[in-house]
Amino acid sequence: MNQTSLQDLRDEELVALCQSGQGQVFEVLVRRYMEKAFRIALDFTHDAEEAKDLSQDAFLRAFSRIKQFDGRSTFYTWFYRLVVNLCLDYTRRKGRVVWERLEGESDGGIEPARLTDASSSPDQEAMAGETKRRVDLTLEAMPKKQKTAFLLRNHQGLSISDIAKVMKTTEGTVRVYLHRAVAALRQSLVEFV
Amino acid sequence: MNQGKYTLENACKEFEADLVLYYYGDDSEADHLRVERHCGECERCRRFLEDLQNLLPRMAVPQELPETFWDRYYNEMVEKLALQRERRSWWQNLFTPIRIWALPAFGTAVVAALALFLVFGRAEHKAVPPQIPQEILTDSNSLEFFNSMDLLESLGTLEKNDGPRTEMVRHT
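YS: structure for the whole thing
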């Protein structure tokens, strides 16, 4: 089967091919999820190189455990769980990520996220910079589960039910995490103005 | 909300969580309608929702990465996967034939080791010379007597083993 026709296959079909010994098929899953995996890792690490290493480790781990995937969840929630767990391990190992890294030189040619338009005035840019700094500090200070729920919902666009599967918790709990995260962010910004 | 000023207005406490879920579209249809109705009447909650709509998407602005970054990422990943497949097949090749004969071979080795221990272990045990008791060692007379007894015992053993020949010598 050539690469083009493989790309038309669903995740579960690709996984089945991998499980039957066609390991190279996994590369299609890499192509499909590399950006999402990288972006989750970047949300947690704020460092492009670390994010690349973590997300690539997640792919390698998924590949080595592909035979254990039993299809009870979708491939992407199973894979997201691997990425998130690696990211949480990383934050446990490293402690809090220093927000200043976002403000300084860009890592690996990646510009830091901005809260302003390109047409913003210097004042607006300064305000946005301060807002961003507060948002990042609040995110770093947040309990890990709240932060994970928020990042997966707000940055990755996962549904509440998928987040619940990734975090192995109930949808109700995810809703609470999400609300508390937004409330904490709101609080940090209310104090600012 | 003004450009550059990303504050969130206070909402009614009992609607705050519902407003967050409303923003993400994660609420039920009934809650969705309830929030919409409430926002029609409540200025604070409407502003809170507007602020959410302004702030939250900005926080998640995806950073555009050059195509070369993704090409490099993918190529690195393909190399790492190939390495892992190679390593795995090497281990599989090594272990698969071993697994077939490892168990009987291990069993045979254990039985052989046990047999060797039983044979040579006992022989060594027999070969150990008798220990002379401490009370005999301290007394020189007793030690001499003990040695002569030992000698006599050895002679007796020799005679017994050499019985027929001794008989023949005596006969002649």
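YS: worth flagging: Chain A has a mean pLDDT of 81.
IM: good catch. Also Residues 10-98 of chain A form a domain with the Rna Polymerase Sigma Factor; Chain: A fold (CATH 1.10.1740.10).
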